[in-house]
Amino acid sequence: MKLSFFVVIFQIFLLSACQSLSGTEYKPLDKLLAKSSVIASPIVVGNRGLLFVPLSVAENTGYFLIDTAATQSAVFENTRLGLLSRSQSIGSANVFGLVEKGNYPLIYVKDLSVASRNIPPQDFVVLPERKNQVFPDGINHYDGLIGMDFLVKFNLFVDPDQGQIYFVPRELPQPDIVQSWTPVQLLNNPNSELGKELRFFDLRVGNQLIPALLDTGSDFNIVNWQATQIPELKRLKRRLRQEWELQGASGVFDPAIKIDVKTLRAGQMRWGRKEFIVMDFDHLDGVGFKDEPVVIAGAPLLQGKRYYVDFKRQFIWFEPETKVN
Fold it and tell me: Exposed/middle/buried for 269, CB within 10 Å: 0-12, 13-18, 19+?
């Protein structure tokens, strides 16, 4: 009896010691999201998975696009929020992105709130108006972008079925879902110290492993022609060039084409058939990807999925799909 009692006590001690050494604390997801410091906001989801969040400046409310490929939050010149007149000019900032590249005015804005929750004053770059945009139901205009300068202060839980996004302070414990949901490891910029706020992950396209930029602000998945280590892309580009030359075309050969990719994998996460645009883009030169293969993993890759982005621990966890027999 004494020996048995000793063994039980010893096992309990070992278990406690392991738990304290690991230092890992998990909270049930619903209890974590109910914390008073968590900001819960409605979202409007576009038909390709873009996420728009209402942001208020004083008494005016507009929609801002959640954009993980924007290093700096931005507002457009044609904003209807009266934000420019309420702001303080603080200089300018360099912007690198798929759409914009250059030096733009920088402003400092107070009286901001998300879902009736006050947030600290925020810097915004002022970008030219984006034209010919297609918006989801309920939105006929949007005012700007919420970039990584703001997002990285939080972890994010996105629940498109409920039309909600949660901004979770980074100091809170992990949700218990991380023990059962599918993880994808995030990386800082692998090619440059610039744009280090951006998040990448290794994406296997067919049989090739390519760095992928997490870009919730893109309504397409994109791969550049520099990824011609993928045999199918190499053959496709050769065929397009031959057709272009046969047509007697002159100028610069700069093709863009849509393709279907059958197999995609990142860590344990797998996707079925996805549409990609193959094209060249110059605006990522500033963050170290000139003549380098790269994928822009856009909103369609995340569309319809519940996921938790942990910028502190550098992971995304995706809810496993329910198998139907």
Answer: buried
E strand or H helix that includes residue 6: helix 2-22
In order, the DSSP letters of 260-308 are EE--EEETTEEE--EEEEE----TTGGGT-TT---EEE-GGGTTT--EE
Interval 193-238: pLDDT, tens: 777 889 999 999 878 899 999 999 999 998 887 766 666 766 776 6
The residues pairing with 315 across neighbouring beta strands, listed in sequence order, are: 185, 310
Amino acid in the structure at residue 129? E
Q: Model's pTM, two decimal places?
A: 0.84
Question: 10 Å Cβ neighbour count for 279?
Answer: 16
φ, ψ of residue 90 to 5 degrees: the values are -130, 20
CA distances to 85, 154, 235, 241, 253 from 245, in Å: 53, 51, 16, 6, 9
